[in-house]
Amino acid sequence: MIYTRFEKEIIDIYERDHPPGASHMIRLIEETNNRFMREDPLIRPRDNEGLPGGIIYVNRFLPGILVPDLHARMDFLLSVLLRRDDNGTSVLDRLFKNEIQLICLGDGMHSEGRAYDRWNAAVGEFIGNYREHRNMDDEMRESLGVMEMVMRLKNEFPENFHFLKGNHENITNEEGNGNHPYIKFAYEGNMVSSYLEMFYGPEFIGTYYQFERNLPLLAVGNGFLASHAEPAGPYSREEIINYRAHPAVVEGLTWTDNDAAEYGSVAFLMAEHLGIDAENGLYFGGHRPIDSLYEKRAGGKYIQINNPDKFIIAKIDPMKNINLEEDIMEIDNSISRILDDYYGPQ
After folding, report:
1. H or E, element range at 313
2. Which pTM does this prediction carry?
3. Which run of H or E residues covers position 142?
4. Strongest mean pLDDT among 61-70, 106-115, 332-341
5. DSSP characters for 289-300?
6. CA dihedral defined by 148, 151, 157, 159, rounded to 10 degrees?
7. Residue 316 has pLDDT above 90, yes or no
């Protein structure tokens, strides 16, 4: 297998044995923030301040793939990009040919339960003011590695790759602007923010914080909507576009617990954005974990696809209605095959 320059670069991110350098990341984040500012207003309408708003109108005529919470799983993202069909064509090949679009549902950072032991080991490093930081280095190698891939994809395919904000897109662990500090298996939010303050510095943190603030909240496509979490309320189009002025909208599209959404919220957003297509449409999200391929909520109209133990994707075919049994699937972890192809016979 002969890999392209771009393929080699994202595989090298996976293979790197240390977190990315601060100056390298600052340049990449600035490039991505500038890319956000240049997004086509027909694809991403501007807010009242002239900034790119909270809604992405994805291409109605291109097939799409929805990817739920990555949580530092570089192998998941690479498996999506470099899996090949029966003709030997990968998703990344099709992105270069403008034949497909990819929509990630947020939560790039924090490895969560699969790295439970590492998080607990890293707590001691955190308490010791990171005099030792091997475990936290490995966590940040994965977390920042995923986000480096995300930014590279956004810059390479600005109209066909989109990453929505999740509740884990909160680099400063702030309380406010629709964000809440994060604690689950350890003190993840504080551990990450302290690590970045110590090893990456204020310029990186400020630039990355702006990147998170620039992420859209809602994707609108041909017969579907997608956000990180189930909408907590019936937010209007104008409120979502002007999300920077409406912290409750940010919180309500990224933090909603199961059974916490206001009745009719999904139906309202689908009617507002899909019109007559709402009857056959579906609303996809991640956020709350499931242990199957998908779970239905909101009368079967809201579909959760975040299984942290599997690589789940949803395929969108603009030429037909979504069939959950056919279009939501588990894909293989292809990283061993990818690396075998990359390095060749040893």
Report:
1. strand 312-316
2. 0.96
3. helix 134-156
4. 61-70
5. --SSS-EEEGGG
6. 150
7. yes
